[in-house]
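lol ok so funny story. i was supposed to be doing the assay writeup but got distracted and ended up predicting the structure for this chain instead. priorities right. anyway since i did it might as well share w the group, maybe its usefull for someone
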Amino acid sequence: MNRLSLPIFVVLFMSLSWLHAQIIKGELKKWHKVTLVFEGPQTSESAEENPFLSYRLNVTFTHSASQEKLVVPGYFASDGNAADTGAEAGNIWKVHFAPDKEGEWTYEVDFKKGKWAAVRTSKKIKSAEYMDGKTGSISIRETDKTGMDFRGKGRLQYIGERYLRFQNGEYFLKCGSDAPENLLAYDQFDGTFKNDGHKDELVKKWEAHKQDWKEGDPTWKNGKGKEVIGAINYLASKGMNAFSFLTMNIGGDDQNVFPYVDYDTWDRFDTSKLDQWEILFEHADKLGMFLHFKTLEFENQGLLDNGGTGLYTKLYYRELIARFGHHLAMNWNLAEETGDWTETPPTFPLDAVERIRLAEYVSSMDPYKHHLVIHNGAWYDEIYGPNTKFTGASLQTNKADFSNVHKSVLRILNESGKAGKIWAVACDEPGDHKHSLIPDTEDPEHDNARKNGLWGAMMAGAWGTEWYFGYEHPHSDLTCEDYRSRDLFWDQGKICLGFFKDNNIPFWNMKSNDSLISSEGDYVLSQTGENYVVYLKNGGESILDLGASNGDYEVSWYNPRLGGTLQKGKVKFISGSGKQSLGKPPVKREQDKDWVVWVKRKDTSFTNGQ
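and the output, tada:
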């Protein structure tokens, strides 16, 4: 090389290096979303060489001090701003990373190209060049978020117990909406679903919740999205902290929710629609709203790869994990609406072997190892135990009066524990498919839902509930566009969560033991010798058996219908051991209604997470 050509080489090298360098976006803080943006090959959603299938982008992040490694999948992002531009083509590729430690993280990019590269692990796949092999580092500071914002709590994790716990040590109880399942069939999301002839009449506008959007909340495309953002704002304003949604129902009841460019193409993804989904989910994080990803409806279990964990299935889950797996409080539900466990099960395309195989694949792809659940259809017997990746159940029941919620939660907790790995159980469809949580106009008191469903689940040891809307009523699981249709019940859910949170009830150390109360059908959560929470469905005077634990206890009462502060009845303290009367509820005219009694050893205090 002569001297004249050397500067040209250097300039060219610097130009190419800049071209393929990453841009780092986001607050560089623990538990925040950090996005690495790469300039890669120019392509499009419809390119002959499929960018979703023929390329594989992974970035390995390593924490310098602890040497913790996370392999995070990335994705094709068209022009990098598709939520606003609607772009289908571009040369931008992204990776979302949610660091859980402060300090320096180094990273190394692996960008490969080849036949079915996205779903292959072979080392023989060739380099796609561009950013392949690129390295760098980022410095992460402490989080500055507080309150409900999950970025101040960390990732919600299954830790081998009945309850999920944030990385800051705080345990979590949830209550929220399980309906409508087609929440994402919203007319202001991009995509062909609105006019493709597949049940277009079920596409949602969410107009009732435009009033709940607030100045400063996110939108896309010059103001779109206010209604669905407002819907989540409303739930949060009512004290709810969870909502669920299907991410694909091509063959289901609604047929308007899918991540693809159209109804019939299952290996190409709508980048602008998915970016708009992400705007909604990111807003939910800041509000403290748990994301329940229901990835398959029953009718869709055999759609991809005939129910096997093949090319289309792997690609589908890889894209979900790459785009949304960084969220802090969420679970992957591998199959929604798989049937009724009390009836002879139908033939399931996703049988036990495939459920286990799919769970293994999702777990291997998810660097954060989120809680992994499934609805019951065929019961859980074959997928319990330490040899599967499942960590819990998303329970659905089948009684209009919610009468089997409590015993079903207990059944799963007992069976999973005996099998060698106790699950964290949430009752995500209490009630039956025809009725369940019906509108306030038909049942303003919601007595059965509150007594048997809400408190029945919590007092059995569930970590939460989500509420399904039966199809024989207005604002159903398919047609609801107004969460205010259950406004009065959300109040009761907030009251339930408030009891445990505001009083620092150490529920994570307590277990169901209904035999300790004399009144039949009532519930007890107990921490022997320390704490007893009693739920009396019909009030009255009951006897609590303290066993051999001798001590002095305070007796406080709580109204699960109205909430408020703890109250005192005639019996304010009990001493000794054995069977002790709790006295009668403190409000004489309401002594025959449901009440919660907290019996706490004197001079004992508790803090969530300790």
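The first strand starts at residue 22 and ends at 25. Residues 170-502 form a domain with the TIM Barrel fold (CATH 3.20.20.80).
back to the writeup now i swear
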